[in-house]
């Protein structure tokens, strides 16, 4: 069977990117990782320098040993050490003895280190090659050299310097080549295995020690970084608590504060600046809340105080219209306009007073309300007020009941239907649907009018917001006070619900959601 090879991005031509490597996300992890990386680089540099230096030192000692050994052994290979002319001197300096070969006549191995290699070359031809193979220092063994080994030996320059080469019949050797008195080349070598073993042992010891040092340093560094960043972690925790506080409206108290730290440190300065900023924000929110309270109080007081004069003006206008005597037509028209505007002003005052009470958080009634019945009554009233529109109902088979204030919920329905009627031309279709889904009553009022402009939609539920000219062209005048949708939003929020708008050319839908609760 053929085995599927793993895809190699380098072989497939894809460029490797460091971004694929996992990166630490927290500052603590980055500092710890950076500390470990720097320590690892330092340990690697020290280890490499130590290994290189030790290898060079031991190799130098090996070269010195080769120079001290001389070429006595390779020179004795030709005649078993019986020709003094092959040696630098005819007698041994220390013993005065004439060098002789071993018992087999293969070379003079006295005072030679086990593993010492000797070779004699005439021209580029290796005539003799042997190695000291006895632990007693006596006994040379011939070395069967291959063609490659002979070429390697022939390539060694006779400069008296150390050179490293590999012999297939033996191993790696450090050799020195000099010219003999007969014009031949004498090569002496010592195995590099002791040097390599020492260097490898140092590499192993360094890897173990540095690995343990990195592990301990990483653990200790993580603890140290965590301890050092504790004040910053507390600042972050405080910021998280502040971000969860509702700051949009109402009285707000920014009670969380970052713990004090050493102001001379960066973390201490951050904590101090953060606490100062929280103080400024709390002052601003306090002033905003006080301003909102004054505005609510003013609106409530003004609305309450205006109800009586507005009602008085309307009553006097109605009384004047009931005068039995002749009244000029212009006066009658003026009195009718005064009565109509007084009624409109009265509605506006009532709406402002209602909004002020809702803003103040006054609780509404929480009684079971049959929304299906309210929808039927509101649509009946809307049909009477707008007979030129087509009204369509989409109701569920079961009645939808929610806990709430029946009067205010009826006002929500009336305002939505009045908004659809007043802002769509005659002949438009208005569809009202009501259903219960997932414990929530969903009321939708849809019309196929011109829609609400995109720049008006974000502020459509604000007070005294009016639709653009496109939505009001061709519709009847007196399109409201600009408070109807504000009341819809306020009443929905007071019931724990919400209202949204989805509008485009030929399709506008207001959706009100009210929690059904236990009904």
Model description:
- The protein is α+β, with helices and mostly antiparallel strands and 519 residues long.
- Helix content is 46%, strand content 16%.
- The protein is built from eleven helices and 13 strands.
- It has helices at residues 27-69, 72-75, 147-154, 193-228, 230-243, 266-321, 329-359, 371-385, 406-422, 469-472, 484-494, and strands at 117-122, 125-132, 140-142, 162-166, 172-179, 185-191, 367-370, 390-395, 401-404, 429-437, 440-447, 498-504, 507-515.
- The strands form three sheets. It has a six-stranded antiparallel β-sheet with strand order 3-2-1-6-5-4, with helices on both faces. A five-stranded mixed β-sheet has the order 8-10-11-13-12, covered by helices on one side.
- A hairpin with a 5-residue loop joins strand 5 and strand 6.
- Helix 7 (329-359) packs parallel to helix 11.
- It is rod-shaped, with a radius of gyration of 52 Å.
- The protein starts with 26 loop residues before the first helix and ends with a strand.
- The model is unreliable at 1-7, 81-106 and 472-479 (pLDDT under 50).
In short:
The chain has 519 residues and is of the alpha+beta class. Helix content is 46%, strand content 16%.
Largest sheet: 6 strands, antiparallel
Helical residue percent band = 40-55%
Q: Number of helical segments?
A: 11
Q: Give the beta-strand count.
A: 13
Task: Kindly report the spatial arrangement of strands forming the biggest sheet.
Answer: 3-2-1-6-5-4
Element string (H = helix, E = strand): HHEEEHEEEHHHHEHEEHEEHHEE
**Radius of gyration, in angstroms, nearest whole number:** 52 Å
Mean pLDDT across the residues is 77
State the low-pLDDT regions, or none. 1-7, 81-106, 472-479
Distance between the termini: 70 Å
Strand-residue fraction?
Answer: 15-25%
What global shape is seen?
A: rod-shaped
Structural class: alpha+beta
């Amino acid at each position: 069977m053929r085995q599927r090879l793993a895809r190699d991005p380098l072989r497939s031509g894809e460029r490797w990117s460091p971004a694929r490597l996992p990166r630490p996300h927290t500052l603590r992890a980055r500092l710890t990782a950076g500390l470990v990386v720097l320590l690892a680089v330092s340990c690697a540099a020290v280890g490499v320098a130590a290994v290189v230096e030790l290898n060079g030192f031991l190799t130098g000692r090996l070269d010195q040993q080769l120079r001290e050994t001389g070429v006595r052994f390779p020179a004795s290979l030709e005649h078993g050490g019986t020709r003094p002319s092959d040696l630098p001197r005819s007698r041994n300096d220390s013993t005065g003895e004439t060098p002789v070969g071993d018992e087999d006549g293969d070379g003079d191995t006295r005072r030679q280190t086990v593993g010492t290699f000797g070779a004699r070359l005439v021209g580029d031809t290796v005539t003799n090659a042997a190695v000291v193979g006895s632990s007693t220092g006596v006994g040379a063994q011939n070395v069967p050299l291959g063609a490659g080994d002979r070429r390697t030996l022939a390539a060694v320059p006779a400069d008296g310097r150390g050179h490293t080469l590999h012999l297939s019949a033996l191993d790696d050797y450090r050799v020195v080549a000099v010219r003999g008195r007969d014009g031949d080349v004498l090569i002496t070598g010592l195995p590099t295995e002791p040097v390599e073993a020492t260097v490898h042992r140092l590499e192993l010891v360094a890897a173990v020690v540095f690995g343990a040092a990195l592990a301990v340093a990483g653990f200790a560094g993580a603890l140290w970084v965590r301890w050092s960043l504790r004040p910053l972690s507390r600042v972050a925790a405080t910021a998280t608590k502040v971000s969860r506080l509702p700051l949009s409206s109402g009285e707000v108290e920014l009670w969380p504060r970052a713990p004090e730290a050493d102001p001379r440190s960066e973390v201490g300065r951050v904590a101090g600046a953060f606490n100062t900023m929280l103080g400024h924000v709390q002052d601003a929110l306090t002033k905003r809340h006080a301003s909102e309270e004054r505005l609510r109080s003013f609106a409530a007081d003004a609305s309450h105080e205006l109800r009586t004069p507005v009602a008085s003006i309307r009553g006097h206008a109605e009384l004047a219209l009931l005068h039995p005597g002749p009244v000029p037509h212009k006066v009658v028209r003026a009195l009718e306009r005064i009565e109509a505007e007084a009624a409109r002003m009265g509605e506006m005052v009532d709406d402002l007073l209602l909004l002020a009470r809702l803003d103040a958080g006054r609780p509404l009634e929480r009684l079971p309300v049959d929304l299906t019945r309210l929808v039927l009554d509101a649509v009946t009233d809307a049909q009477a007020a707008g007979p030129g529109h087509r009204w369509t109902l989409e109701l569920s088979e079961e009645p939808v009941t929610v806990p709430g204030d029946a009067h205010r919920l009826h006002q929500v329905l009336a305002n939505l239907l009045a908004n659809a009627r007043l802002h769509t031309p005659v002949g438009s279709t208005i569809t009202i649907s009501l259903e219960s889904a997932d414990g929530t009553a969903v009321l939708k009022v849809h019309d196929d009018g011109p829609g609400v402009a995109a720049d008006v939609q974000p502020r459509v539920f604000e007070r005294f917001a009016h639709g653009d000219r496109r939505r009001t062209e061709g519709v009847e005048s007196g399109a409201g006070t600009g408070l109807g949708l504000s009341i819809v939003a306020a009443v929905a929020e007071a019931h724990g619900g919400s209202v949204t708008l989805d509008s485009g050319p030929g399709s506008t839908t207001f959706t009100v959601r009210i929690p059904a609760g236990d009904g």
